[in-house]
Structures are given as structure tokens and as C-alpha cells.
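Hello K.,

You asked for the raw outputs rather than the summary table, so here they are, unedited. I folded two proteins back to back in the same session to keep the settings identical. This is the first:
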Amino acid sequence: MASKGREDHRVGCCPSGCGAWRRNWIADRAAHGWVEDRRWTLTRVTALIAELFGVRYTPRGVAYLLRRMGWSPRVPVHRAAERDEEEIATWVKEVWPNVKELWRPVEPG
């Protein structure tokens, strides 16, 4: 007798559920309880998929799923609140050439 597979076989959250999942993905992270750090980590995406679809994935499985959907990891750029772009541009134009010249490679010999 050949096995018929699992009785509770589920296809997963895609492709039929992708629309709902993407809408929740784009929604404010605070709505899902992540107020202080609003980045979407694999663990958080795993929890969201389990909550929305009742399907459990490992974080690695979620990474494969996201890759198939065309998503890629992004890390936000952290910049100081006091950052002054004009002052930085002035420094790069006036000071950096002098500093760069001091760090010229030493010629062998």
C-alpha cells in the first residue's frame, strides 16, 4: 500500500495568501506589537505568518520563502540626529585632501 501523504497537508501561505500577507507586511509594525524596534526580522515574519495563516515555518524557511517572492534583506542606515550634511561636505572638500596626502603609501626602497 502506498502512502497518501499527510492528512493535514497544507500548501503554505503562498501563492493564494500572498495578497493578505503583503498587506500585513507593509502595515505598521507597531500594530503587531513591535513598538521599540520596528525592523522586520525573520523571527517576526515567522510569527506573522503563523498568526495570519496558521502555518509554521522555521526562520530559514521564511528566508527561502521571501527570496522566492523577490524580497532581499535590507539594513537601515543609522545616522546621528546631529549630522550636518553641509559641514561634512565642507570637510570632505577642504580637510580630506590634506589627510589623504599624509596617508600616501610608502614607496619601497
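The second followed immediately with the same parameters:
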Amino acid sequence: MDPHETHCIRCGQPVDKGLRGCTPQSRSVDHIIAIELGGARLSRDNVALAHYGCNSRHGAMVRWAKHNRRGHTVSRMIVDVDPHSL
């Protein structure tokens, strides 16, 4: 990852490099080509700056897509809930 990077590779917004921990806006290292899809784990050419939240969402989408390519089906359930009953 280039130490001069300032913006998230996923959303394009600035990343506050001073934030620590696992908050959505904190910094993280994102693999440009996901490891699950054959991307190099330790190659500097395959990593970039990303918000932790953007990185997490992107990783979840990659895992979902990979899972569905194996012929698995995904079921969705829609629940209609009256907000006044909560």
C-alpha cells in the first residue's frame, strides 16, 4: 500500500488515518483482487487503503458471489413487521 494514499479505494472518500480500531470509517488494508478469487495475499501491488466498513462490505459481497458460483441457492425471507408492535 502506498503510504501517500489518502482516499478509500472502494468509495473514493478520504480516510482518516488517525482513527483506530474497527469503526466503519477507520483505515484498513484492502486486497484489490480478493484472496478468495486468487489475489496475492502479500503483494504490495494487490493492496490499497480502504475504510474498514467499505472493506468489510466488499469482502462480504465477494464471499457471497463465490458461494453462489458453486451452484448453491440463496433464499431470502421478507418479513412484514408492524413497527408499532416493537
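Helices lie at 52-69.

Happy to rerun anything if the numbers look odd on your end.

Regards,
P.
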